[in-house]
Design brief:
- The complex is a heterodimer of chains A (145) and B (484).
- With 145 residues, chain A is α+β, with helices and mostly antiparallel strands.
- In chain A, the strands form 2 sheets. Chain A has a 5-stranded mixed sheet with strand order 3-9-8-5-6, with no helix packed on it. Chain A has a 4-stranded antiparallel sheet with strand order 2-1-4-7, with no helix packed on it.
- Chain B contains 13 helices and 21 strands.
- The N and C termini of chain B lie far apart (105 Å).
- In chain B, a hairpin with a 2-residue loop joins strand 3 and strand 4.
- The longest helix of chain B is centred in the middle third of the chain and has 31 residues.
- The radius of gyration of chain B is 40 Å and the shape is elongated.
- Helices cover 35% and strands 31% of the residues of chain B.
- Chain B has 484 residues and is an alpha+beta fold.
- The chains are: A alpha+beta (145), B alpha+beta (484).
- At the A-B interface, strand 1, strand 2, strand 8 and strand 9 of A face strand 15 and strand 16 of B.
Chain lengths: 145, 484
């Protein structure tokens, strides 16, 4: 008798767990887990003097306007599905330039750039935002003589 | 018709106007009493006469006369202050507070002549030389300024003591005003009269010198002969009978009938008071019943009773134009700080508030009337105080030395709390530091810098008025310029 009970009890518990699992699964709203999952992960973002071979060169926080251009480089790894991001360039608190960049799976690097003139000297920032306008990263730098 | 005009002139008086006239007439009267008998008053009268001549000349179109009179009056004002400084300071120094406000002095009437006579007889009997000055109407302050201020009560012993041989002040003259010895040891101006009898010495010459320039009575006691002389109006009267000294002094100073003299003085003061009242009334009428003049003034708007938690961040107008009217002299004398527009902020709320400017908000000096206000309403934007935490960004200027690159910075603290108007704070996303010059940065390090609030109405947290910027500087890599 005791042996029989001992053999039967584990089978009953596992069956109970399966049933509970199935019932619980029915109550989970469809797509909850997928919605929370980000479409991409920002691996790296810098402001740099130029781009060479898809890599940023001389990332810095102060740029001389005599160099003519400044770049914002962002790298996403992984990218789960095709999406887009924005590079918003601000001088002080004023939006100067916004660029939409498309990202493709499985990983993607993209950049935007602005021309530097004498009148542009001062503090700048680039906000990297996703399609839902969430800020992924803010990069701050200065343009100087 | 003239009766109607007269009625119009005196109609519509307020109790304040009457008080205004009486008060100023009294001030004028007090000035007269203060300077009565001094040369200052005579010169002032001359200045007033010149002013009247100048105004008349202006009315008649006499250009040069008017111009000359104006110049003379300006110069005379300075001359009065410079020439009569002793007399003016004498009046101010020797008078008590009550004298300035209500006391009326009687010229030498109250002088105890008996005491002076006793002292003079005693001095003459002891052959002690003495010189006693009794100023009358014109005063002597502008003629004699030397000596020692005494302001001592008059007594026989005091007078004898002053002239006692060897006493420090025995050589000069003593001045007696009212019941007091005001000054002693004074030097009198000597007469230049060449016909003075040889029996008279320096004391008589000095007494004569003073009476040549004033109406004062001077009593001289001769040291050699022990004779008493009364000097008045350039005349030396030797008194042979000591019993007559008192009578003669009374005759020269107050006369034998002080009551009669008192009445004359009272009459004179009453006439002066009436003249003061008439002058002030005339001045008041010329101000208030003169030609009506219109004028425009841009007056600043002041806001009162503002809630401590709220700030005014904008107003549609900071000034309002007031159209006012009044007599021309009043309008000409008007200055901006005499007018104000005060608006209460009671009952206002955050955001835009329309406030009406009414007559009750405008303060004007008496006699000035308000005709119009433009604009008559002002829109005020109020903002409640709030706090916000914002990131700090370094603001660099200048140029890094060649070959160097600033690769990273960190700001400590990264964010600061700022206080200011809620509406203003909404627009603020970053706080910047003051300019950090790059020229001197060659190696990694840190710098402490202040924050710049923009707009200036914002205030940083007291603890974080300065932040630390840590920077990393490295050599620039020289890669190829290929761009993909």
């Amino acid at each position: 008798m005791p042996d029989f009970n001992a053999r039967k009890s584990p089978f009953g518990l596992s069956r109970l767990l399966i049933v509970c699992g199935l019932v619980g699964f029915l109550f989970i709203p469809a797509g909850v887990g997928l919605a929370d999952q980000p479409l991409m992960v920002l691996a790296d973002a810098v402001v740099c003097e130029r781009i060479s071979n898809f890599r940023p060169v001389n990332p810095a926080v102060v740029f001389s306007v005599s160099q003519g251009e400044v770049f914002c480089f962002s790298e996403f790894d992984p990218v789960y599905e095709k999406t887009a991001i924005f590079h918003n360039w601000y001088k002080k608190d004023k939006l100067i330039f916004s660029m939409r960049l498309v990202l493709s799976v499985p990983k993607w690097a993209s950049f935007s750039r602005v021309q530097m003139r004498d009148a542009d000297k001062g503090p700048w920032r680039v906000e990297i935002r996703d399609e839902d306008n969430n800020i992924l990263k803010t990069l701050r730098f200065s343009m100087s003589d | 018709m003239p009766m109607e005009q007269l009625f119009l002139l005196f109609s519509g008086w307020r109790w304040q106007d009457v008080l205004d006239i009486v008060l100023n007439a009294y001030i004028l009267f007090r000035l007269y009493v203060l300077f009565r008998g001094t040369n200052v008053l005579r010169v002032l009268m001359a200045v007033v006469a010149m002013w009247i001549i100048g105004r008349s000349a202006n009315a008649m179109g006499l250009v040069i006369t008017n111009w000359v009179m104006q110049g003379v009056i300006t110069v005379a004002t300075f001359i009065i202050i410079i020439v009569f400084r002793n007399e003016i300071s004498g009046v101010v120094r020797t008078r008590s507070f009550s004298f300035f406000l209500w006391e009326i002095p009687r010229t030498q009437i109250n002088t105890p002549v008996r005491i002076i006579t006793d002292a003079v007889v005693k001095l003459a009997g002891s052959k002690i030389g003495a010189l006693i000055v009794m100023p009358l109407k014109t005063g002597v302050d502008s003629i004699i300024a030397s000596g020692v201020d005494m302001n001592a009560s008059l007594s026989r012993e005091m007078l004898v003591n002053i002239f006692w041989p060897g006493a420090p002040l025995h050589d000069g003259a003593a001045v007696i005003q009212g019941g007091k010895i005001t000054r002693a040891g004074t030097i009198l101006p000597l007469s230049q009269n060449r016909h003075l009898a040889s029996k008279y010495g320096t004391r008589h010459r000095a007494a004569l010198g003073l009476t040549e320039q004033s109406d004062a009575l001077v009593i001289v006691v001769s040291e050699e002969r022990g004779k008493v002389s009364l000097v008045k109006d350039n005349q030396i009267h030797e008194v042979r009978d000591p019993d007559k000294i008192e009578t003669l002094i009374k005759q020269y100073t107050g006369g034998p009938e002080p009551v009669k003299k008192m009445r004359r003085q009272t009459r004179e003061l009453l006439v002066a008071a009436m003249v003061c009242l008439l002058c002030t009334t005339g001045l008041w009428l010329s101000f208030s019943r003169g030609m009506e003049t219109l004028a425009n003034y841009d007056v600043p708007i002041e806001f009162m009773n503002s809630d401590k938690k709220m700030n005014i961040i904008d107003a549609s107008a900071s000034r309002s134009r007031l159209l006012i009217s009044g007599a021309r002299p009043l309008i000409n004398a008007l200055t901006l700080d005499q007018m104000s527009i005060k608006i209460s902020l009671d009952g206002t709320a955050v955001g835009k508030n329309k406030l009406v400017i009414t007559r009750q908000n405008v303060q004007l000096p008496p006699g000035i009337r308000l005709k119009n206000i433009e604009p008559d309403q002002v829109e005020v934007t109020l903002d409640a105080m709030a706090e916000k935490r914002v990131p700090v960004q370094a603001d660099f200027s200048g140029k890094l030395p060649d070959g160097l690159i600033m690769t990273s910075i960190s700001v400590i603290p990264e964010t600061v709390k700022i206080t200011g108007g809620g509406l203003t704070l909404n627009a603020v996303t970053t706080v910047f530091t003051e300019k950090i010059p790059l020229e001197n940065l060659t190696t990694s390090g840190f710098v402490n810098v202040a924050l710049v609030m923009s707009p200036a109405t914002l205030r940083p947290d007291e603890k974080h008025k300065k932040v630390q910027i840590r920077y990393t500087i490295s050599e620039r890599k020289s890669n190829d310029h290929t761009e993909s």
